[in-house]
Structure formats: C-alpha cells, structure tokens
C-alpha cells in the first residue's frame, strides 16, 4: 500500500484515500467535485429553510451564488439605484462628520439626524414595519428638512 502526503496539511494518507483523514481536504478531482456538490446542497437547504421557495425550472446547473445564500437576490439594484445609494452614503456620512465637528451647536444635532436619515440602512429599518424600504425621496426630503433647520439654528445662535 503506497502512502502519499496531503498537499494541504502534509499528513501521511493512503494513496487510495479520497479525502485527507487529518484535515478533510479532497485528494482528487472527483472528491473535490463531490465536496463542491455537498456544499452547494447545504447552501440550497439554508436558502430553502429561510422560506424562499426554490421553484427552480428546467434542470439548472445548480449554481449557488452569494446572492442566493444571503437572500439579496430579491433586490436587484439598477445603475441609477446604485448611484442613489452611493450618493446617500456620501451625503449622509459627510453631514454626520460636519455635525460632529460642530456638536456644541444645537443645530449640529439636526444635521446629525439628517445625516442618519439619509443613510440607506435607515431607510430599510424605517421601512420594516411596512414591509419594504422607505421611499428614498421621502428620506431625501427628511434630510433636507433637518439640514435646513440645522443650518438655520447655526445662523440664529
Ligand atoms: Zn490534510
């Protein structure tokens, strides 16, 4: 019986072994494929368990993307939406940073609220009770109101 060593952990393993007994690394193409299939099945179960009916049509290749696993496929972002999203983050963080540097002024707190309001995760959180995301136009409006009020306080005080 010939012995070889695992390419991953160097443990001596039987030449006919398909998986390393030490670290479980597949030792040939076939075993690697088998492991791959197993992982994909597990991933599918996770997705199925979280309530997203599979409903797969004609025998697909069984590809599981990160989107399937993490359930983000439902929200396909168009280019315009991504632009909105990026803009919201930049504007939100910039506003928060400015507010933090001026935090001794009461107006800064309104700027802070505005910055938080326009950040995309906030839209999602506020949208939870109604089962979706808050309209970005509404959040942008909220942002403008907070910022204008905050700026007004800066001038008044
Ligand atoms: Zn090994």
UniProtKB/TrEMBL annotation:
It comes from the Archaea. Residues 6-26 form the Zinc-ribbon domain. The chain crosses the membrane at residues 90-118, 138-156. Keywords: Membrane, Transmembrane, Transmembrane helix. It comes from Halorubrum aquaticum. It holds the Pfam family Zn_Ribbon_1. This is Zinc-ribbon domain-containing protein. The keyword Transmembrane helix applies.
């Amino acid at each position: 019986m010939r012995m070889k060593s695992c390419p991953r952990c160097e443990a001596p393993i039987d030449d006919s072994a398909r998986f390393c007994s030490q670290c479980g690394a597949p030792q040939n193409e076939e075993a690697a494929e088998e492991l791959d299939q197993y992982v994909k099945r597990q991933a599918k179960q996770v997705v199925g368990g979280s309530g997203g009916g599979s409903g797969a049509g004609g025998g697909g290749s069984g590809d599981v993307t990160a989107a399937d696993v993490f359930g983000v496929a439902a929200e396909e972002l168009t280019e315009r939406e991504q632009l909105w999203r990026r803009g919201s983050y930049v504007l939100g963080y910039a506003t928060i940073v400015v507010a933090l540097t001026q935090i001794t002024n009461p107006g800064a707190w309104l700027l802070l609220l505005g910055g938080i309001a326009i950040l995309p995760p906030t839209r999602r959180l506020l949208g939870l009770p109604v089962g979706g995301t808050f309209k970005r136009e509404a959040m942008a409006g909220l942002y403008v109101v907070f910022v204008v009020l905050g700026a007004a306080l800066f001038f008044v005080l």
